[in-house]
């Protein structure tokens, strides 16, 4: 199958309806507008990720404090920060 026939056939698409993630209503989550960025589920999950990264990097050797530890923490913090600034 060439690339043209794949792009025209919706069943061969990697994002066909069978593979799409369930919507919020299918997960029985109430639909109401977020009043603050902290109401966003994606921000809450990103915040939990940051807390886990801090917990994980606490176990790194002390000589990594200004290297890998710092880089991982800054990268993790940027996720909820960008979400909040876009709200």
Question: What's the SSE blueprint?
Answer:
Blueprint: H1 3-8, H2 41-57, H3 68-85
How many beta strands in the DSSP annotation? 0
In angstroms, what separates the terminal alpha carbons? 43 Å
Q: What is the overall number of helices?
A: 3
Biggest β-sheet strands, sense, barrel: none
Question: How would you explain this protein's 3D organization?
Answer:
The protein is mostly helical and 87 residues long. The protein has one domain. It has helices spanning 3-8, 41-57, 68-85. Helix 2 packs antiparallel against helix 3. The model is unreliable at 1-25 (pLDDT under 50).
Short description:
By secondary structure, this protein is mainly alpha-helical. It is built from three helices and no strands.
Label this structure with key terms.
single chain, 87 residues, elongated, mainly alpha, 47% helix
């Amino acid at each position: 199958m060439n690339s043209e026939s794949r792009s025209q056939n919706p069943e061969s698409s990697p994002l066909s309806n069978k593979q799409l993630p369930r919507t919020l209503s299918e997960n029985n989550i109430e639909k109401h507008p977020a009043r603050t960025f902290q109401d966003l589920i994606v921000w809450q999950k990103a915040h939990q990720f940051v807390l886990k990264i801090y917990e994980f990097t606490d176990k790194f050797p002390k000589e990594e404090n200004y290297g890998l530890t710092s880089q991982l923490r800054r990268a993790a913090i940027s996720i909820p920060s960008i979400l909040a600034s876009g709200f």
